[in-house]
User: What shape does this take?
Amino acid sequence: MLHLFRRSLLSMIGLVLILFLIIVALFAPLIASEHPSYVEVQTEQGTTRVEERWEIHFDRKLQSPSLQHLFGTDDYGRDIFSMIVYGSQTSLRICLMVVIISTLAGIILGGLAGYFGGVIDEVLMRITDVFLAIPYLILALAVAAALGRSIDHIMEAMIITWWPSYARLFRGQVLAIREQQYVEAARSVGASNSRILFRHILPNSIAPLIVEITLDLGAVLLVAAGLSFIGLGASPGTAEWGLMISEGRTLMFHAWWYVTFPGLAILFVVLGFNLLGDGLRDVTDPKLRR
Amino acid sequence: MDEPLIDASHLKAYFPVKKGMFSSTKDYVKAVDDVSIQIRKGETFGLVGESGCGKTTLGRVLIHLLPPTSGTLVFMGSNLSEISKHELRMLRPHMQIVFQDPSSSLNPRMTIKQILSEPLRINKRYKGEAVTTKVLDLLKTVGLDKQHLYRFPHEFSGGQKQRIGVARALALNPDFIVLDEPTSSLDVSVQAQILNLLKDLQKQFNLTYLFITHDLSVIKFISDRVAVMYAGKIVEYANTVDLFRDPLHPYTKALLAAIPIPDPRLRSKHIPLKGEVPSLITPPAGCRFHPRCPVATEACAKIEPHMKEIYKDHFVSCF
Assistant: This one.
């Protein structure tokens, strides 16, 4: 598998970019020069929660990139490089949570619908249609209005609107694989439904889904950043790339670094996921194997 | 005569066709319509017919991979539509199938060892090391060996894949194997190898075959008795020798006349058939063959002929 991957320069670039993102996110405290300090915040319900807060240094606000502050500082004097490094954690968390939960829902519901067909298929697919009809932007707006702006709420809204497309895709795959003769052969030797599903259908129908997931990771990041940009996502003060661009956009002509570096971070990560997805699509094509 | 291994009477397999959301009447594809046959222990029963006449469906029904819509199917003395799920599971190993397309009948993500050990593990016939021994044994029976054990299906040729398909069918020591056009996707030279292999295996393991094909020369070579199927029904069945020497049904006559004779000096007395295979949703009234039959009378369009035994063991449904 890997030797095929190595043949394509672009997919290798994608893989390297994504590995780099993961390393940065994992070792953020070691890489960043500044740490967000954690403060306890009283919520309206009277409980406390821990929030990341960046210290404010007005004495060094809006400094251009230098050796001390690689990507410059923002209007509160925070180090943009450190914010981007910590922002990678937020980004990765959103992408993985949304995609993993949506995928699980999609595989379970799409798999059941495709394998058993009939009434089960009808019911599950109509439920899927209902969810497919919800526009993510409207739902995100509604959730933010009702529950307050937070990354968690954005994630919930995205999961709700994201899984139906996976359920659809996976159902279609299962429908095609179900008719293969090896499935019939397994049935004729007495294999149980669960064995047929997990040993025969799942391994043969998962490949297109994996490709779709990888390509979607970039899309999720873009949507999340976009929602933060328009003020629905991360609460002010957190290290989130979309929010940083939003906050920096009024200062674009005074401090180009404020919007440029978070923008580049988004660009490279989305590019990385897309290249990786394209590479995976080529590799999972069985005709390319040996 | 020995008792039949399979005794099917009035088998029907209908598939509903949706017309539309608001229509209350449903149409059915009558793939198998009122078929009664007996298959005797140890014989090779050939089933011929053109594409889409329902012969594959009949094969699936006979090993209960598809439960029949109605009719009774008695296999080794037990009525398959009456016994419990558990009992059916116990009978499954006795009836196996070899598919037409060897490349889609093997899971592309499993090694040959996994493919062949799956039936053994499911039915808990063998454990641990014994599984490997049995798999090697199976490979040897079909003419492959242990260097093939850890390869994937796409690394094999069509003939080799078909051998693996046969080995899988043999894994559970079945009594009855449905061979669903096992040679039609293979080269002629490979066809002969597989046919000979199947013949040898039949002798070795005392197997009963249902051989489904559209290739009359293959049928003539391998089967003891032949049934000719047309539009969901059996129109004639007899010993192979009798059927080829003295076909009674006009459809059988036309089929046999269409066999090419490998001698240019012998003029073939080809009987051209007009029209197409009728739709299985709305088959013609009366005899299903009457619109294409060269000797059809008016009565043929109205009354459906029944199976009659013209000579001993030679049945035909024609007037």
